[in-house]
Design brief:
The protein is an alpha/beta fold. The protein has 5 helices and 4 strands; from the N terminus they run E-H-E-H-E-H-E-H-H. It has one domain: Lumazine/riboflavin synthase (Rossmann fold, 3-Layer(aba) Sandwich), CATH 3.40.50.960. Helix 1 crosses helix 5. It is globular. Bound molecules: ligand DLZ. Catalyzes the formation of 6,7-dimethyl-8-ribityllumazine by condensation of 5-amino-6-(D-ribitylamino)uracil with 3,4-dihydroxy-2-butanone 4-phosphate. This is the penultimate step in the biosynthesis of riboflavin.
Amino acid sequence: PLQPDVSRVALKGAESEVSFDNDLDGSDMKIGIIRTRWNDEHVTNLVNGIKEGLKECKVAEASVFETSVPGAFELPLAARFLALSGTVDAIICCGVLIKGETMHFEYISDAVAKGIMNVGMSTTTPCVLGVLTCMNEDQVKARSSGNNNHGVDWGKTAVEMALLRTEAM
Ligand code: DLZ
């Protein structure tokens, strides 16, 4: 009785609240997507959303590099390798972590978020945290499908940050 029924609140707070400049021009930008193979179906939906967001920002399909790693824990190191290769202007790390019965979720979520932040800070290549951390699959679906696919925002975030980096450096 002390456990809330999280499936009933899956949609609460799921809607994206960020707005973007309609004129974001990523036509000169090269973007890397690193995705996990864990939770493959959901991550594929998110990656499709990312590509939609990149397209809206005029990023050419040929300028999008995509690769995969097993799970979310592998994302930061793969992002560092890609950042250090100097071949992309921004990186989106995409995955889905779902809470299980142990503390694994808490440790991994924290490590992955900090790891991705560290890659951006240490390399100056913007690294987008495109990792959903959810209590169950209903929460994941509410954030990765239909007209509330957070991947779209992550694609636009990558372009905005890549442009900011060009201005700053
Ligand atoms: C082991 C594990 C578990 C239990 N759950 C997930 C998950 O929900 N999402 C995800 O991306 N990866 C998961 N992993 C795998 C770890 O991220 C990692 O791949 C392994 O611990 C090997 O380092």
